[in-house]
Amino acid sequence: MMHHRRSLFAALFLITALLTSAWAVDVQEQLKKLEMDRADANVKSDVAMLDKQTSDDYVLINLNGGTAGKAEMLEGFKSGRTKITTDDLSDLKVRVYGNTAIITGKADVKGTLGGADATGQILFTRVYVKKDGRWQCVSLQQTRMATP
User: Fold this and answer.
1) What is the pLDDT of residues 84-137, one digit of tens each?
2) What is the pTM of this model?
Protein backbone atom coordinates (compact mmCIF):
# COMPACT_ATOMS: atom_id res chain seq x y z
CA MET A 1 0.00 0.00 0.00
CA MET A 2 2.82 2.41 0.89
CA HIS A 3 4.54 1.78 -2.46
CA HIS A 4 1.28 2.47 -4.30
CA ARG A 5 0.83 5.75 -2.41
CA ARG A 6 4.39 6.88 -3.26
CA SER A 7 3.82 6.05 -6.93
CA LEU A 8 0.58 8.03 -6.91
CA PHE A 9 2.29 11.05 -5.33
CA ALA A 10 5.15 10.84 -7.82
CA ALA A 11 2.69 10.70 -10.73
CA LEU A 12 0.72 13.67 -9.40
CA PHE A 13 3.93 15.64 -8.93
CA LEU A 14 5.02 14.87 -12.49
CA ILE A 15 1.63 15.85 -13.95
CA THR A 16 1.65 19.12 -11.97
CA ALA A 17 5.18 19.93 -13.15
CA LEU A 18 4.28 19.22 -16.78
CA LEU A 19 1.11 21.34 -16.63
CA THR A 20 2.99 24.21 -14.97
CA SER A 21 5.71 24.04 -17.62
CA ALA A 22 3.15 23.99 -20.45
CA TRP A 23 1.34 26.98 -18.91
CA ALA A 24 4.60 28.93 -18.64
CA VAL A 25 5.50 28.27 -22.29
CA ASP A 26 1.99 29.30 -23.37
CA VAL A 27 2.21 32.59 -21.44
CA GLN A 28 5.66 33.28 -22.90
CA GLU A 29 4.34 32.70 -26.43
CA GLN A 30 1.34 34.98 -25.74
CA LEU A 31 3.69 37.73 -24.59
CA LYS A 32 5.99 37.29 -27.62
CA LYS A 33 2.95 37.64 -29.86
CA LEU A 34 1.83 40.72 -27.92
CA GLU A 35 5.28 42.25 -28.42
CA MET A 36 5.25 41.48 -32.17
CA ASP A 37 1.73 42.96 -32.44
CA ARG A 38 2.96 46.06 -30.64
CA ALA A 39 5.84 46.43 -33.13
CA ASP A 40 3.29 46.20 -35.97
CA ALA A 41 1.18 48.86 -34.23
CA ASN A 42 4.26 51.11 -34.08
CA VAL A 43 4.77 50.80 -37.85
CA LYS A 44 1.05 51.37 -38.56
CA SER A 45 0.84 54.23 -36.04
CA ASP A 46 -2.10 52.33 -34.55
CA VAL A 47 -2.75 54.67 -31.64
CA ALA A 48 -5.89 52.78 -30.54
CA MET A 49 -3.96 49.52 -30.12
CA LEU A 50 -1.03 51.22 -28.40
CA ASP A 51 -3.45 53.01 -26.06
CA LYS A 52 -5.18 49.72 -25.16
CA GLN A 53 -1.89 47.86 -24.55
CA THR A 54 -0.29 50.64 -22.49
CA SER A 55 -0.89 51.30 -18.81
CA ASP A 56 -1.81 54.84 -17.75
CA ASP A 57 1.32 54.97 -15.56
CA TYR A 58 3.61 53.97 -18.46
CA VAL A 59 7.20 55.26 -18.47
CA LEU A 60 9.40 55.34 -21.59
CA ILE A 61 13.14 55.92 -21.54
CA ASN A 62 13.96 56.21 -25.23
CA LEU A 63 17.14 55.51 -27.17
CA ASN A 64 18.06 59.21 -27.17
CA GLY A 65 17.86 59.47 -23.36
CA GLY A 66 14.50 61.22 -23.29
CA THR A 67 11.58 60.21 -21.14
CA ALA A 68 7.85 60.22 -21.80
CA GLY A 69 4.62 58.99 -20.31
CA LYS A 70 1.70 57.38 -22.08
CA ALA A 71 0.10 60.63 -23.23
CA GLU A 72 3.35 61.94 -24.73
CA MET A 73 4.09 58.62 -26.45
CA LEU A 74 0.63 58.48 -28.03
CA GLU A 75 0.76 62.17 -29.04
CA GLY A 76 4.05 61.53 -30.85
CA PHE A 77 2.29 59.00 -33.10
CA LYS A 78 -0.82 61.19 -33.54
CA SER A 79 1.20 64.27 -34.52
CA GLY A 80 3.58 62.39 -36.81
CA ARG A 81 6.66 63.39 -34.78
CA THR A 82 7.07 59.65 -34.16
CA LYS A 83 6.93 57.72 -37.41
CA ILE A 84 8.36 54.22 -37.45
CA THR A 85 8.64 52.59 -40.90
CA THR A 86 10.45 49.43 -39.73
CA ASP A 87 10.38 47.75 -36.33
CA ASP A 88 11.80 44.24 -36.79
CA LEU A 89 12.24 42.36 -33.51
CA SER A 90 14.67 39.53 -32.75
CA ASP A 91 16.27 37.71 -29.83
CA LEU A 92 13.13 38.04 -27.70
CA LYS A 93 13.47 36.59 -24.22
CA VAL A 94 10.46 36.47 -21.92
CA ARG A 95 10.56 36.00 -18.16
CA VAL A 96 7.32 35.79 -16.20
CA TYR A 97 7.06 36.45 -12.48
CA GLY A 98 3.41 35.97 -11.56
CA ASN A 99 1.53 39.00 -12.91
CA THR A 100 4.72 40.70 -14.14
CA ALA A 101 6.66 39.90 -17.30
CA ILE A 102 9.95 41.25 -18.60
CA ILE A 103 10.78 41.05 -22.29
CA THR A 104 14.24 41.80 -23.61
CA GLY A 105 15.27 41.83 -27.22
CA LYS A 106 16.69 43.63 -30.23
CA ALA A 107 14.88 45.87 -32.68
CA ASP A 108 16.04 46.96 -36.11
CA VAL A 109 14.28 50.31 -36.43
CA LYS A 110 13.88 52.89 -39.16
CA GLY A 111 12.07 56.15 -38.61
CA THR A 112 11.81 59.03 -36.18
CA LEU A 113 11.05 59.17 -32.48
CA GLY A 114 9.74 62.50 -31.24
CA GLY A 115 11.18 64.15 -34.34
CA ALA A 116 14.69 62.70 -33.82
CA ASP A 117 16.24 60.01 -36.01
CA ALA A 118 15.64 56.55 -34.54
CA THR A 119 17.23 54.49 -37.30
CA GLY A 120 19.52 51.70 -36.11
CA GLN A 121 19.65 48.65 -33.90
CA ILE A 122 18.22 48.98 -30.44
CA LEU A 123 18.33 46.77 -27.37
CA PHE A 124 15.24 47.05 -25.21
CA THR A 125 13.64 45.96 -21.98
CA ARG A 126 9.86 46.11 -21.75
CA VAL A 127 7.86 45.39 -18.60
CA TYR A 128 4.27 44.13 -18.70
CA VAL A 129 1.88 43.76 -15.78
CA LYS A 130 -1.30 41.70 -15.91
CA LYS A 131 -4.18 44.02 -14.95
CA ASP A 132 -7.83 42.99 -15.03
CA GLY A 133 -6.94 39.80 -16.88
CA ARG A 134 -4.87 41.37 -19.67
CA TRP A 135 -1.22 42.29 -20.11
CA GLN A 136 -0.37 46.01 -20.26
CA CYS A 137 2.98 47.63 -20.88
CA VAL A 138 4.12 49.72 -17.90
CA SER A 139 7.69 50.52 -18.94
CA LEU A 140 10.10 50.49 -21.88
CA GLN A 141 13.81 51.26 -21.83
CA GLN A 142 15.75 51.46 -25.10
CA THR A 143 19.50 51.58 -25.73
CA ARG A 144 21.08 52.18 -29.12
CA MET A 145 23.56 49.42 -29.96
CA ALA A 146 27.14 50.56 -30.33
CA THR A 147 28.54 50.40 -33.84
CA PRO A 148 31.65 48.19 -34.11
Assistant:
1) 999 999 999 999 999 999 999 999 999 998 888 989 999 999 999 999 999 999
2) 0.81
Residue 96 belongs to domain spanning: 2-144
Highest mean pLDDT among 5-19, 23-37, 40-54: 40-54
| HEC letters along the chain | CHHHHHHHHHHHHHHHHHHHHHHHHHHHHHHHHHHHHHHHHHHHCCHHHHHHHEEEEEEEECCCCCEEEHHHHHHHHHHCCCEEEEEEEEEEEEEEECCEEEEEEEEEEEEEECCEECCEEEEEEEEEEEECCEEEEEEEEEEECCCC
Distance of alpha carbon 141 from alpha carbon 67, whole angstroms: 9
Q: What is the CATH number of the domain that holds 106?
A: 3.10.450.50
Whether the Cβ atoms of residue 55 and residue 129 lie closer than 8 Å to each other? yes
